[in-house]
Records
---
Amino acid sequence: MLDPAILFPSILNGLTTGAVYALIALGLTLIYGVLHIINFAHGAALMVALYGVYFLHRKLGIDPYMSLPIMVPAMFVAGYALYRGVIGRASHGKDENILLVTLGISIMLENAALYFFKSDTLTIETSYTLSTMSIFGAMISVPKVVAFAGALVATAVLLLIIAKTDLGRAIRACAKERQGARLVGIDVEHVFAMSFGIGLACLGAAACFLLPTYYVNPQVGNGFVLIAFTIVVLGGMGSFTGALLGGFLIGVVESVGGLALGESLGQIGIFVIFIAVLLFRPQGLFGARA
Amino acid sequence: MDSGMRSLALIGAFVLVVLALPLFVNSGFLLNLAIMVLYTTLIGQAWNILGGFGGQFSFGHAVFFGTGAYAMAVLQVNFGISPWLALPCAIALGALVGLLLGALSFRYGLKGSYFALVTLAFAEVFRILANTFDFTGAGVGLQLPLQESVASMQFATKAGYLYLVLLLATAGLLIAWWLKHSRYGAWLAAVRDNEDSAAALGVNAFRVKLVAISISGALMAAGGAFYVQLFHYIDPHIAYGTAVSVEALLAAIIGGMGTIFGPLLGAIVLQGLSELTRNYLDSAPGVSLIVYGALLVLIIMFMPRGIAGLSGRRA
């Protein structure tokens, strides 16, 4: 059996990773909740954000955490423009079309990265990359703790925007009933694009917290995309609290599963959960009936 | 001649033209191109049967492709079974995987994005499994021993491969023709257009979709099996990676979903484009896929009914 002395750090580690997963999944669930589409380009957009953080550090010497005020607005603008310029136009009012268009975008982004940056795996070196701290006797890397806290703060900000601002009210209105929202004078296309922008802005933040302990290559998004989908489905499509709890759960499952089954087969745990939830409880563990 | 006989005659003419091709064309390049076009037609038609005729968009058709490819390779390499026997086994296994995947997902009413996701997840699970187990050669993959003879389905001339893939692609065309002109095809179209009304009229939507995914899986597995014979090699990334899933859905969407000849038209465009990018841009990795991705976006934006939709009627 697993020794508690190994199990406890592994769970803590899973929770820190899970917070970043949750942040990525929040963007995805926001887009799904409002637009009722799955953004297949989510992983590729994360990959782009990671390259952004990498090059800001590499070429301009900007610390990953200091990149936050650059990456978050940049990803927001990119998302807004992408929706307005491509996705919204291509949809012709059909959800299947959006599905295919985001797939097309993700193929383009991933292979453009492959073409320009080659398939090399890149990492950055910061003064705190290898530093660790002790939590209840378990050694945890400092950047992971920062990522954990950062992801929680970002999530809180997002929830506040949705709950308290006019934009948040408009987003919720469009998510519930887009025809009604249009009738009361909300510019629905604008709200859709804003939601898409905010969804990608979450990725900008996630990339800043991830890179100090992670790496970037053209395929890096693929791993996250299925994890984020799993979390969104697990938490109930469109549910924010669900995404948060789902993120932690998946983080822990991955960490403990990797410990018990080894790296390669440990991944399967996530997919098995994903398929099982899709089949038996597609409304999610915390979600209402779709 | 009604439209049914006309498209049947068109299929016949197409088969004759391809059969005669090696008599007049000597260039290995052109014959190779014809082989690749037919191969892409085959996997495009496989996707088209479920996605175009059935309205169920799969993003993980690699799950069938890889299963067919590995069945073909494992049966020959590990068990010494003749490829002519392994091919029907591979096709049957593809149908079986389709049946299982369909039974699981359609039983629980998965459709739209959910169905696309679950197919993707299955392909990913299969990829990890193929990467782990020894009998699939794990990460290294499997290599067919070179043995040039008709008995081992390794032909001395390009014509042999051309005729083999022609046989499989024609089967795909005939199935699509049957879907256009049969009672079952009408049920499938009814389920695609409005599942609830179809069910209200007494169509067993679950069973209709199950048949579609099995046929689709069988054809896709045939594509995987042919791939192994053509290149003598398979690994988890080729078998279960996203590239082949994307190629299959692109061929059908570019050509025109739910049409008999759509995948053929799409295959011609795709292979033509991939030749062009290879010749005129450099052959750096990723270039052809950038073009594919852009093409997918543009087609959806400007001609959502594909090339076949341009003629104004559904071929």
Note: Chain B touches chain A at residues 57, 59, 104-105, 107-110, 112-114, 116-118, 120-122, 124-125, 128-129, 131-132, 242, 246, 249, 253, 284-287, 289-290, 292-297, 300-301, 304 (CB under 8 Å).
---
Amino acid sequence: MKKRILSATSALFIASVIWAQDGGQIHGNFSVDGQLYNDDEEIGAVKPPADFGLNSWSNLMYRNNNFEAGIRLESYEPALLGYPAGQAYSGTGVGFRYATFRKDDLEITAGNFYEQFGQGLAFRSYEERYLGVDNAMDGVRVKFSPDTGIFLKGFIGTQRLAFNNGFTKGTGVVRGIDGEISVLEAFPRLLPKLAEKGNNLSIGASFVSKFQADKDPLLVLPENVGLWAARAHYTTSRWDLYSEYAYKINDPNASNHFIYKRGQALMANATYSLSGLGVTAGAHIYDNMTFQSDRGAPSLFDLNINYLPTLAKQHSYNLPATLYPYATQPNGEVAYQAEVFYLFKRGTKLGGKYGTKLTVNWSGAWSLDSTALPNDTVHLMGYKTNFFSMGQRQYFSDLNVELRKKLSSKWELTLSWLNLMYDIEVVQGKSGKKDIYADMFILEGLHKINDKTSLRFEAQHLSTKQDQGDWATGLVELTFSPHWFLAAMDQYNYGNPVEKERTHYPIGSFGYIRGASRFSFSYGRQRAGIFCVGGVCRVVPAANGLTASITTTF
Amino acid sequence: MRKIILPLMLLLAAGGCDIVSDPKEGLAGPTVPGNDGVVRRVLLEDCTGFRCNNCPQAANMAQSLKNVYGDRLVIVGVHMKQQFAGPEWPYDDGIYDTDFRTEAGNVYDQTFGIIGLPSGLIDRAPYNNIMAMGIGSWSEAVAARMELPPLMDTWFEGLQYDGGTNTVSGTVKVAVLEPINGDHNLTIYLTEDHVIDWQLDGVTNIPDYDHRHVLRGALNSPWGQSLITGDAQPGDTLTATFSYPLPPNVLQPANCALVAYVYSTAGADQYEVKQVVERKIIP
């Protein structure tokens, strides 16, 4: 394996030396996260055999005229506890490498690539590094624009599954094609008035198919499973309207309990914005839409071909972000979201001297309105659905109000209230647990002490009669611009019904920033919880220890 | 160049769709070789837990495969993870109070990086690059392992259970059929069938679920004992004599069985099970 790493690195270096004569450039970045663990019986933190974990990534990209090549070296010696979300990562090696050639509206990539069709209902290959999700393709991708406003993409390849001294791949072959027409760009004389106003309408369609051999002795499985999708996107200076529909043929897999029902998804989002006012509304239904390149994929984090966006606000505050975040239910959910923000202007009664921003957001998700078909032992369709009709079971709702107010040149405050309903049995798989009803209040303040020094603080409180009871979190962060920051935080589960589990989770950190480099260190307890990005969540185990992170770019 | 791009892209995507209207039509069924001669037997370790709501589905899958392959498939239910196989608070209310975990199960959970349950280890060999696999791969993975030729035969001799001392004793014999390279160990499990206890099935709590093939412990430690050092040649017969008390978590000795398997301890096939055999301790 060392030979492979050396040879790949050497090839890039030699290429850079050869082409540097023509003015090629090398860019890159580096990041490392390491943690030294302690045992901590009180919070259930167990020190791993190696005492520490370390994740590291180094990207090198070379560009010269029409040519681009890149490589990413990754190291997990061993991986941080709970990382990644799916199959295990271990060892050191090449995690990503590619070469791209562009000429005359044609782009060809060989090797690894990330790609997305529309919002991802048909296909999305992406990396969410700190979540530990990476379903990079390995194959060939072609992009071509035959005329103004017309964009075509096609690809074929296999997907990254895990990492063992280099990326390992799943067994299924994925191929796809996507076309998009920016109508007013391609045909400006068709609707000249709209084109003059800067409006645009784009329509697109995709077809994605996976191949996996059928060697199952118990069932006849489809070896080729296709999914098609169509989308439309209309924008004006004030409106942004988007809708996408996807349909998948029979795709029996572990996630849907090997039923042969078709899958479908429909999403629609609308945004209206004026100066000082924004309104967003969205809805979607996902029915049997898990689409993985291995029908036996061991978890919902592995080998996903498509991506199902969530309709829930992604909170950044500690308690709402890590205790009860919502994760998309790909096999079936109906969800809605609406958000309004209004900026009270300066000089008005509510706006005061600096203006006031009020944001109200609500989202909710329900089960499908479906009927089980237990007697269907021939076609194995599993259930039938009333499309876009909500089922009886509510998975989630989140009503939150945020008031952001600058009080003076030195003070800014944000006050938030959240009201949450959370079906922990479905969302986190904690069977037998009751639905959670919680209220949260959060006060965030920012005080500029002087031109270089600022103090930020957060006071958070969560109250619930279910699960682990009430929580409180306090955070203080001192920033000495432009180089240093210092922070301390404590989470306290003071309302836990089990007295001995009323635990503090203190953590202190400091960091140094210089140019494009950032160094940070923290020591303390990390509560077991959930970490989510875009509706995809992974479990974070309890930990106690010293964490160090370094990032830099060049 | 441009003229061929679009047809090429269409060709790339022209994978087609296979519509299956009758998922069970025309299945010839797996070929189960008769008992003539030595056959490859396969170990399916069903990583499970009584508080895991999807685990009954996996147990049903394992039993479906057992119905097809009979004695050629050895199933062991390895209960693991505190949140799935450990007791649930309040601890003395008679509901989910049992601790199904074993030292061996805890070690395998760590070693094989079991992320979630249910999960399966099939001969501890990767299938489609995955070692701990979801139930969607079990059927194919078991079929693939069944097709492999046997490298050795394994059987019990002189198996005895002494009710007075609660001890099981006997000898495991291993006859080498093909050249074996590398160190291999022998592990002996004690399993108990038909353990009646709580089980979460979907959203239903079942108080009297029939837990099958429950691992009660690895009698000679989770990683077993050395059996082959260096290599072994066809014609070699290796023996391991044992005598162990039954683990204290056993409820009914009459429902217990021993499972002995030989696996590689190092190299590219590390952990891979080469042969397995199961026998009830009280015939």
Note: Residues 55-69 of chain B form the longest helix (15 residues).
